[in-house]
Amino acid sequence: MALCLAAFVTNDLNAADKNKPTVNSDGSVNTPSHMMHSDNPLIKKWVGPYGGVPPFDKVQVSYFKPALEFAMQENLDEVDKIASSTEAPTFENTIAALERTGQTLDRIYTSYGVWSSTMNTPEFQEVEREMAPVLAAFSDKITQNLKLFKRIEAVYNSPEKGKLNPEQQRLTWNYYTSFVRAGAKLDEKSKARLSEINKQLAELYTKFSQNQLGDEMGKYLLLENESDLAGLPKSFVDGAAIAANNKKFPGKWLISNTRSSVDPFLTYSDRRDLREKAWKMFINRGDNGDENDNNAVISQILPLRLERAKLLGYQSHAHWRLENAMAKTPERAVQLLESIWTPAVNRVKEEVADMQALANKEGAKITIEPWDYKYYAEKVRKEKYDLDQNEVKQYFQLENLREGMFWVAGELFNFSFVPVNDVPVYHPDVRVWAVNDKTTGNFIGLWYFDAYAREGKRSGAWMNAYRNQQKMDSEINTIVSNNSNFVKGKPGEPVLISWDDASTLFHEFGHALHGLASNVTYPTLSGTNVVRDYVEFPSQLLEHWLETPEVLQKFALHKDTGKPIPQELVEKIEKASTFNQGFATVEYLASAIIDMKLHLSQEKNIDPDAFERNELAKLGMPKEIVMRHRTPHFGHIFSSDGYSAGYYSYLWSDVLTADAWEAFMEGKGAYDKEVADRMIKYIFSVGNTIDPEEGYRAFRGRDPKTEALMRKRGFPVTNTGKSGSNPGTGEKK
């Protein structure tokens, strides 16, 4: 069942009024009959091999609105049948029945989500804007259905619940708490206001995302002359030339307004004036006072979120969001963030001092500014550790590292990956692999890989589940995807990526493995459908296998000679592993703390720029660093409810990650079969069928300790591991 669709946003072409859906006051949808024809490929069941596959080759933007309208009405009819049943509520006729609803909508939303994130054209954006409030109203129509909720509540409170198996009890709890948190117990007046808030938020989230994409696609730095290329690696220059040519600037070089383009420019460009321009362009996305400015959007989102939380009985949006998370309360999340802040800032002071000394030594006569940080950090890295990241990149070919990920999945999960060409894709860049069990040959799922940046694709890297694994009525295999924004080089030449990009590649593959390894009965509890501050744990954990000698020796091969990375260079990487952790930690913590403070605030008229500036000043933010995601382009928290009041979760999960990795190191090493089997059994395969705290304890034999994180980042270890700030303990003792 498609729960909580208020986060969905969609849109349509310039259709005539006769094609517009009618939304009733109760949120139901009246769809013109001529739009419900069965030849819309999005409405049909998936066909083809592997249990059916998304019909990406048949998608047209004009199909989305009628398909969504049809599927929403079908879903409402399915739900109404359950709610109106005269039979006494049971797990099978209520909870399990709900799990079987919304299948058409789920299939349609797979294609819709792909177009939203990777094929986002002006035509599609119209569909997003039009349909956002319709989808929000639809979602509320389900969660505010009193007859339906009474049946869910009856099953939840029934003495018979004790006879259900643990997964069924967990699913029942999940439905009950989800409905309550969505306003099922409110009176009719409050429900009406809640629905109006959700519709307004859906529209604002759409506007925020489109503004952010507008700045990323519409602003760029054009390099006109050879002198503008000083210091830049050849592979980067080649990519910039292709980007310029794509924008109709032949013979020039273009720096796109995305992290994958700006970060390497800031690291290697000798032109300080151009570094400053690139840095300001990037950090001011959504904050330029033009049609894409997001400050007014944020100023509307925050009070609506606060009002919604109060309406639902919570002190703040943060308290509502964290109620069922591992952290339980914002206070515990803030405690963890603040416990790392001081050692991280102290490390930044050391890093800046080293950079300033080097700049002085070179006679630069400058004071280190934010646009100098990456440039001089790279120089210090070379001087301190004799480590040149550009030298490392010569061994990090994207395709080889992808094979390395497959090899790791084979060693830990017993998976094999076979390329397939018999499934449709939405863009020629997308490739697909079938995932099988190496021993039995059984089919596990499909893995789609969309590696390269392009117009209309949002920046960053992410994982999607196109279909969740389940075995409710029959075995349904999962379909997952990984998406990146690497810059293409010249045809036929390997794409070289940095160590950080390689870590991100492994991170997102960890999410994919979380989906592929899932072995649960019910789709709602499947794969990555876990609490926000746990979902990043499996993905962050997989990053560690990049650094293992087995991967580096087999897959880190020089682009020209094909020889493996020298052990001497590997040792330099290991010695420099905690280098620049002050910068990395502070830029992240600043974003996480501002996120939490925004959503704990009781102010109703927040100026985002002023709030960010004032709170960072109170924190003592080093002037040489800005937030990793400044508020006006903080898509994690303003493009949906997704990570709102939840950006802290990366650090919370990293405590688990660091502690779990030490379990391997305490055993026989990274490929210890016994530890890996426990990891799969209690972490990767169970989805949301068990409480994540219990799952972690079953894997580790105890709660996680924060010392492992401090060691991982090279910070002083000062606590005893008995602090209440340790993640995973919740409110239980």
Concise description?
The protein is α+β, with helices and mostly antiparallel strands. It has helices at 61-83, 91-99, 103-118, 122-143, 146-157, 166-181, 188-218, 234-246, 259-268, 272-283, 295-311, 317-322, 330-361, 373-385, 389-393, 398-413, 499-516, 532-542, 549-555, 567-575, 581-600, 608-619, 635-638, 649-666, 673-684, 692-700, 707-713, and strands at residues 22-23, 29-30, 220-223, 253-256, 415-420, 431-437, 443-452, 462-467, 478-486.
Descriptive notes:
This protein has about 725 residues and is of the alpha+beta class. It is built from 27 helices and nine strands. The protein has helices at about 60-85, 90-100, 105-120, 120-145, 145-155, 165-180, 190-220, 235-245, 260-270, 270-285, 295-310, 315-320, 330-360, 375-385, 390-395, 400-415, 500-515, 530-540, 550-555, 565-575, 580-600, 610-620, 635-640, 650-665, 675-685, 690-700, 705-715; strands at about 20-25, 30, 220-225, 255, 415-420, 430-435, 445-450, 460-465, 480-485. The strands form three sheets. Strands 5-6-7-9-8 form a five-stranded mixed beta sheet, sandwiched between helices. A hairpin with a 5-residue loop joins strand 6 (about 430-435) and strand 7. Helix 4 (about 120-145) runs antiparallel to helix 7. The longest helix is centred in the middle third of the chain and has 32 residues, at about 330-360. It is globular. The two termini are about 35 Å apart.
